[in-house]
Amino acid sequence: MLVFSACVGDKKNAPTNSAEIPVSKEMIAELTAPPHVPTPVGRRKAKKLIVKMEILEKEGEMTNGVRYMYWTFGGTVPGSFIRTRVGDEVEFHLQNHPNNKLPHNIDLHAVTGPGGGAESSFVAPGHSKVFSFKTLNPGLYVYHCATAPVGMHIANGMYGLILVEPEGGLPLVDREYYVMQGDFYTKGANGERGLQPFDMQKAVDEKADYVVFNGKVGALTGDNALTAKVGETVRLYVGNGGPGLVSSFHVIGEIFDRVHVEGGDLINENVQTTLIPAGGAAMIEFRVDVPGTFILVDHSIFRAFNKGALGMLKVEGEEDKKIYSGEIRDDIYLPEGPGIQSMPTTDEIVASEVPAKSFEEQMEFGKQAYMQTCVACHQAEGQGIPNAFPPLAKSDYLNADVNRSIDIVLHGLTGEITVNGEKYNSIMTSQMLSSDEIANVLTYVYNSWGNSGAKVTKEMVEKVKNKK
Ligand SMILES: [Cu+2]
Question: What DSSP state is assigned to residue 23?
Answer without folding.
Answer: -
